[in-house]
Amino acid sequence: MATFAPPPRRPLPEAADVVVIGAGVMGLSVAYQLLRARRAGQRLHVVVVDQGYLAGGASGRNGGGVRAQWSTELNIELMRESLTLCAAFAREHRIHTWFRRGGYLFVAKEPAKVAMLEASAALQRRCGLATELLDASRAAELVPELDPEQIGRASYNPDDAVVFPWPFIWGYADSATRLGAEVHPFTEVIAVEHTGGRIDRVVTQRGSIRAPVVVNAAGAYSPQVATLAGVTLPNTPHRHEICASEPLKAWLTPLVADLDTGLYFSQSSRGELVGGVSDPRAPDDHDQGSSARFLALYSRALLRLCPRLERLKVLRQWAGLYDLTPDRNPIVGEVDEPSGFFQASGFMGHGFMMAPVIGKCLAQAILTGTPDPRLAPWHLRRFASGELLDEGMIIG
Ligand SMILES: Cc1cc2nc3c(=O)[nH]c(=O)nc-3n(C[C@H](O)[C@H](O)[C@H](O)COP(=O)(O)OP(=O)(O)OC[C@H]3O[C@@H](n4cnc5c(N)ncnc54)[C@H](O)[C@@H]3O)c2cc1C
């Protein structure tokens, strides 16, 4: 009888120029962009290691929402660039991404949220986005199932989009590998060594790799990885649940997000309604289990906004981890010490959409030694100096 034998695993190299810890969308984007942006003829050995399989982290569990509607100029500018990169991804990486530009419709009723929505929409228009502010009846024209009574104001950017997340991981992994990167799944990092204030070596349970540059893209495990190098990150993991319904006839074009409840939902190309909701009481640990409490919260928030969905059947639910920072903004860039140790973490519910542009910025910073000045506010040192940031257009 034939027995299945897994293929022999490729040994780890003894040395590399850059080791990326985490083969989620962020780590793979950085790896790909490093190789794409290196000088012609430059030899650059990039190794990506992951403790699990590709798409096992938040990158394989998310809703695929990609938008430029934010409340700060920095996020609007970066995400506009990321949307362009997402739109071009299929052609660049020769993989279908199910990119659908149906727009994002944000709604709000609480006065403080309405004020924030209005101020953000005005800023987005000043930044050149096509965002429109809508009253309740115009919003219900766009999505007739919405109850106008529950809407004070809405903002709509037709250029926002939804994608299927997995092809982004496969696309980046394939393209990076084609350009010379090594991607090693099931390779857990257990130590990050430095000497004389400089990063020196990454130790995994399969062997160690000497490298002068290490990127921490370990998602909700980034603080644990940072600790291995003696660096403290203030991030905490937070479970975020999501579900998919039975397939329905196509009825919904934009992704709808309710700033009052943290509800969001979109319709996939297969007809399923895919959505989630904020749960401030979800555990702050690495639990990725599913709960009945989520289903109750989700259905309550969904029926408040769309009473006609009363008979909708949920077919699947799952969960992933948000990686939260105290000011709900990311931590990106090289830490002060040890040098050569770069961070890309704290992306909460929007790291998927940010990965294309952040990968580019971080790769440039690593290759040139000059950080992108736009990302200066996202440096880890802001938590010590007290220069915390604010971003209102956050859901989930
Ligand atoms: C349910 C849900 C819905 C979401 N919806 C959206 C959305 O619509 N739009 C959006 O932009 N974002 C969304 N997000 C957020 C988004 O998924 C994340 O911000 C993004 O995927 C983070 O990518 P990452 O590569 O940093 O982390 P991850 O994808 O989590 O990857 C980190 C990797 O590091 C590996 N790792 C950890 N520790 C080690 C170690 N010691 N050694 C080796 N490897 C290690 C892990 O195995 C993992 O594969 C959602 C998240 C969830 C959970």
Topology at a glance:
Layout: E1 18-21, H1 25-37, E2 46-49, E3 65-66, H2 73-93, E4 104-108, H3 111-126, E5 132-134, H4 136-142, E6 153-157, E7 161-162, H5 166-178, E8 182-184, E9 189-195, E10 198-204, E11 207-210, E12 213-216, H6 222-228, E13 236-247, E14 255-258, E15 263-267, E16 272-276, H7 292-305, E17 314-324, E18 331-334, E19 341-345, H8 351-368, H9 382-385
Parallel strand pairs: 1-2, 1-12, 2-8, 4-14, 12-19
Antiparallel strand pairs: 3-7, 4-6, 5-6, 9-10, 10-11, 13-16, 13-17, 14-15, 15-16, 18-19
Helix pairs in contact: 1-5, 1-8, 2-8
The structure holds flavin-adenine dinucleotide.
Give structural notes:
This protein is α/β, with parallel strands linked by helices and 396 residues long. It has two domains: 172 residues, FAD/NAD(P)-binding domain; 141 residues, D-Amino Acid Oxidase, subunit A, domain 2 (D-Amino Acid Oxidase, Chain A, domain 2, 2-Layer Sandwich). Helices cover 29% and strands 24% of the residues. It has nine helices and 19 strands. The longest helix is centred in the N-terminal third of the chain and has 21 residues. The protein is globular and about 60 Å long. 47% of the residues are buried. The model has no long low-confidence stretch (mean pLDDT 96). Flavin-adenine dinucleotide binds next to helix 1, strand 13, strand 17 and helix 8. The site of flavin-adenine dinucleotide (FAD) has 40 residues, from helix 1, strand 13, strand 17 and helix 8.
